[in-house]
Amino acid sequence: MKQFRQENMENIRRSTNPQIALGIFRIFKKLNDRFLQCTSTLLMPVYKIFFIFGHSLSLVVAIKFHSSISLPQYLLFPLLSITYVVMEAPIFTWMGQVESLSTEFLYSWRHQADKVWTREFQSLRHMQIRVGSIYCIQSFTYLIVLLAVSNLTINSLLIV
Question: Which sequence ranges are marked TM in the entry (predicted)?
């Protein structure tokens, strides 16, 4: 069996046609944008709603129903709340950085791709969280997400 040494890797790099590599790169770039379009219009809103309302629900159950459910079931909700905090911090911080990167990416696509594809790239719009009918978080940090979670939790506690 032939082993890949540094010399073999250099030969592979030299034999690659730049036009073929550029064409493959453009195809992957278009596929990636299609994937981003699907995830931003379908999965990301569901994902954000799931995290915010799941976090608030786990806090409400942990605060309000501590005496009415059994201990193993009760311990699940504070554990879920801690899990949400650990998972939300890097994810929502990353989502807040997407807008600035998306603007640069869309600008580069206007100069590289054909007009049909640039019209169809709608995955690069603002990512935002809508809380209630009026309050909308557009460029957010993790602390604003925690503010939305705490508002929903307090409102739920007052209703229940």
Answer: 42-63, 75-95, 140-159
Q: How confident is the model at residue 97 (pLDDT cuts 50, 70, 90)?
A: low
Confidence of residue 152 (pLDDT cuts 50, 70, 90): confident
**What is the Cα 117 distance to its own chain's centre?**
23
Degrees (nearest 5) of the Cα angle 150, 152, 158? 100
Q: Give the span between the Cα atoms of 66 and 124, in whole angstroms.
A: 43
Hey, what are 32's tokens? 């990636």
Residues 137, 148 contacting (CB under 8 angstroms): yes
Strands 129-131 and 135-137: antiparallel
**Token pair for residue 154?**
């307090």
Amino acid 122: pLDDT: 44
Residue 132 backbone class (left: φ over 0; alpha: ψ -120 to 50; beta: rest): left
pTM exceeds 0.70 for this model: no
CB 148 within 8 A of CB 156: no
